[in-house]
Amino acid sequence: MDKVLHRNSKAIVILKILIITYIITGLLLLLLSFLMLKLDLSNAILSGGIVMIYILSSFIGGLLLGKKAEQKRFLWGLVMGAVYFVILLLISVLGNTMAGIDTNQIFSSMLICLFSGMLGGMIS
Q1: Each residue's pLDDT tens digit in the chain (124 positions)?
Q2: Which residues contact residue 81 at a Cβ distance below 8 angstroms, ignoring those fewer than 6 apart?
Q3: How many distinct structural domains can be found in the chain?
Q4: Can you give the residue range of the structural domain that contains 68?
């Protein structure tokens, strides 16, 4: 019984931190869109901003989950980055925004999320 409760509490902690990371992502995307509106930014700056948002959100998620974990913090950060990327990918597929995106972009986004989350876990 205790093992089931312990597993459920880990899932709840991951979900809470995931919600925090997506709130951060949403706020940063709103800020980026506001800057695009006011400063007329180019597509290259927009793409770089989105990548920075992925890095920052995954890093913060890995950092928060690493602080909650007692052992293997880098692994928990990697898990957080993976979950963040999978949900991001599902949202993109369900929103039908995958048109024009090649496999290299998806793979690089996955690596960015994984390594950022792992770095956050390591630093925690």
Answers
A1: 345 446 668 889 899 999 999 999 999 999 999 998 888 888 888 889 999 999 999 999 999 998 888 788 889 999 999 999 999 889 888 887 666 677 888 899 999 999 999 999 999 8
A2: 58, 61, 62, 113, 114, 115, 116, 117, 118, 120
A3: 1
A4: 2-123
